Write the structure tokens for this entry.
Amino acid sequence: MQPIQGSPTGQYWQWQGYSIYYVVGDSPATLGDRPSGALSDRPALLLVHGFGASTDHWKKNIAVLQREFDVWAIDLLGFGRSAKPDQVYSGDVWRSQLHDFITTIIRKPTVLAGNSLGGYASLCVGANHPEDVAGVILLNSAGPFTPTTPMPEPNPLQKAIQT
């Protein structure tokens, strides 16, 4: 077993006027010969943290995963080292953020691996933009906390059973 090498490199991306922090895993030395801006043949993997977490959540995972994948991890808006504007946060905001990151920074279909809230946001991207998503991995995924459609009125039999 080889020791884990290197720490991911952190940087900022401007998204809708906000600074978004992300890290990029190291690529094997052979990829260093690629022309600037050229895309790798390796699968792209974007790691998305859960509620109250950050890119730090994935540090040890990135070190191992970067051996086989081009790996990114992102701090969702409102978390970690990303901007924390005074606004309403929602799945729609994070879905847009992740999709824009894929199309702007990664620039090829990407596997999203999301934990908790990050799983929910990743699933939203996959459902709404399947052309840009190569797969979704859910780890203890969260979901909407309120129904998106009103619950139907119980029928008479259901009412009788409930009382």
The longest strand covers residues 9-15.
